[in-house]
Amino acid sequence: MRIAEKFERPVISLIDLPGAYPGLGAEERGQAEAIARNILEMSRLKVPTISVITGEGGSGGALALAVSDRVMILENALYFVITPESCAAIMWRDAAHKQLAAEAMKISAPEVAALGCVDEILPEPPEGAHADHEAGAGLLGTSLKKHLAELKAIPIEVLVAARQQKFRNIAQFYTER
User: Fold this and answer.
1) In Å, how far are 54, 74, 112, 113 from 98, measured between CA atoms?
2) How many Å from the N-terminal Cα to the C-terminal Cα in the chain?
3) pLDDT of residue 177
4) What is the pTM of this model?
5) Do 148 and 50 meet the contact criterion of CB atoms below 8 Å apart?
6) C-alpha distances in angstroms, 173 versus 125, 139, 143, 164, 169?
7) Which range is least confidently modeled, 23-32, 110-119, 120-129?
């Protein structure tokens, strides 16, 4: 990403991962620190950034790649802070309640868009992007070109400040007591 910044090239991240592994070994190897460092670096990049969730966008692993000026999601993709199985295991002590957890977490493309976690839902070919790679790539390419043109027109200082503000406020809601 720093090389892209050095040569004034945009950073585009394609995300499809179930999440960061939460085990002790991963933590011993510095996984959490690497995720935190990547979030920091992406928030400060002085080039346009775009992330696309193409399948699963899970946990800190996805967030580490999705601190972008624009976050898009394919219409059949999912974006979540924890897998439904893990959430169910925590909430109900039974991973079998994963469907209930998924519904409560609101992880589908329309649901995360309604929460303000993504900027655009990208349509897929009738059978899905995985079944028609060329059509899926064409739809993605059209959207990337549009967003890059918009982002390049914004002064970089304004772009970085807006990116940082966006992620400070993402998915926040308040209730009255």
Assistant:
1) 21, 22, 18, 21
2) 44
3) 61
4) 0.89
5) yes
6) 34, 32, 29, 18, 9
7) 23-32
